[in-house]
Write a structure and sequence with these properties.
Largest sheet: 7 strands, mixed
Number of strands: 12
Distance between the termini: 47 Å
CATH class of the largest domain: Alpha Beta
Number of helices: 13
Number of domains: 2
Order of helices and strands: HHEHHEHEHEHEHEEEHHHEHEEEH
CATH topology of the largest domain: Aspartate Aminotransferase, domain 2
Shape: globular
Radius of gyration: 21 Å
Strand content: 5-15%
CATH superfamily of the largest domain: Type I PLP-dependent aspartate aminotransferase-like (Major domain)
Length: 381
């Protein structure tokens, strides 16, 4: 009765951790959540106000399947202002979140057996998307001492006649590291279309992030509003596409999703045009948390060779405590009452690591580190 596709897709392990933590909380246990990459901030009021105004004005219907033209214009203005690249609004497709956007991108590219090059470690769900659509993920190792950065020469070695895309994510989930501009430019020159997941752009604490569109138009940009604007529950993302992919993706979108919601798109325009002070405030607070968490984890015995300067994650080497990150993460949850993400969720090269999210208040992070420190002292190595 159940398809093999449904039976075989792996779980998103961090959600298993979260769900166990929620079950503990229902039993009255206080858990510090450092496992999930969701901003703890409420959506800025200027965005909420725009949504309410739109709903009261009757903006509650289907929109163009590519999204409101006004929003697509605002997205193009944003890319021009931030990266100096010119994008036609006709190349933009607005989606109900970035996960549907990624599904649409892969659906437009892959035939059964086609390959997508991914870094190892990687965002947990990337290979699941590829396999679900009949493709084959090909992993390229990235090392801790190199800041988990992809090397163009290693990607080149992984290219075959079946390679349809190279996927990059900078700033990265789970590592929090940025891909430097020289490497991004070299990757852009390899040949296959580059899918650039830019969802954490704007959340950087030092050098500026770079868009793939600064180096090539033969690219698919994946971006959205969840992380930078604290809009995870709004489910709004977008794609910037090569012209030849627009109509195929639009047709898939029409059939499977119709359109992103109307009033949410008007709110997204306000995010792009009115929320910069709110974004900068949140970014400064994230950076304060980052600057606390990194030395504290090192003090507790975790390894961090290259300090992450983007997103809101630290992928810390926990092999001094255990080689089994899944077991260790659940042990920490049960005994220290701190939720963390096991590295194995992010690929074999992250086994023995734990991902810590600093998308929680500084007070809760400090409480989590105190609990973790007490647990590790009692546990020993």
């Amino acid at each position: 009765m159940i398809s093999s596709r449904a039976l075989e897709i792996p779980p998103f392990i961090v959600m298993d951790v979260l769900e166990r933590a929620k079950a503990m909380e229902r039993q009255g246990v206080d858990v510090v959540h450092l496992e999930v990459g969701e901003p703890d901030f409420d959506t800025p009021s200027c965005i909420v106000d725009a949504a309410v105004e739109a709903m009261r004005a009757g903006k509650t219907h289907y929109t163009h399947s590519q999204g409101l033209y006004e929003l697509r214009e605002a997205i193009c203005e944003h890319y021009q202002a931030r990266y100096g690249v010119s994008v036609d609004p006709e190349r933009v497709v607005v989606t109900a979140g970035t996960s549907p956007a990624l599904l649409l991108a892969f659906a437009s590219l892959l035939e059964p057996g086609d390959e997508v090059v991914l870094s190892n470690p990687h965002y947990a769900c990337y290979p699941h998307f590829v396999r679900f659509l009949g493709g084959r993920p090909v992993f390229v190792e990235a090392e801790e001492q190199d800041g988990f950065q992809l090397r163009a020469e290693r990607i080149q070695q992984a290219i075959t006649s079946r390679t349809k895309a190279i996927l990059v994510n900078s700033p990265s989930n789970p590592t929090g590291n940025l891909l430097d501009s020289g490497r991004l430019e070299a990757i852009a020159k390899i040949g296959p279309v580059v899918i650039s997941d830019e969802i954490y752009h704007g959340l950087v604490y030092g050098e500026r992030e770079r868009s793939i569109l600064e180096f090539t138009d033969r690219a698919i940009v994946l971006n959205g509003f969840s992380k930078l604007y604290a809009m995870t529950g709004w489910r709004l993302g977008y794609l910037i596409l090569p012209q030849e992919l627009v109509r195929p993706i639009q047709k898939i979108h029409q059939n499977f999703f119709i359109s992103a919601n109307d009033f949410g798109q008007w709110a997204a325009i306000a995010a792009l045009r009115k929320a910069q002070q709110d974004v900068e405030r949140m970014r400064r607070i994230y950076d304060e948390r980052r600057r606390y968490l990194i030395p504290k984890l090192r003090e507790l015995g975790f390894g961090i060779q290259v300090e992450p300067t983007g997103a809101f994650y630290v992928l810390a080497n926990a092999r001094a405590f255990s080689e089994n990150s899944y077991q260790l993460a659940f042990e920490i949850l049960e005994k220290a009452r701190v939720g963390v993400a096991p590295g194995i969720d992010f690929g074999s090269n992250a086994e023995g690591y734990l991902r810590f999210s600093y998308a929680a208040s500084l007070e809760r992070i400090q409480e989590g580190m105190d609990r973790l420190g007490s647990y590790l002292r009692e546990r020993g190595t």
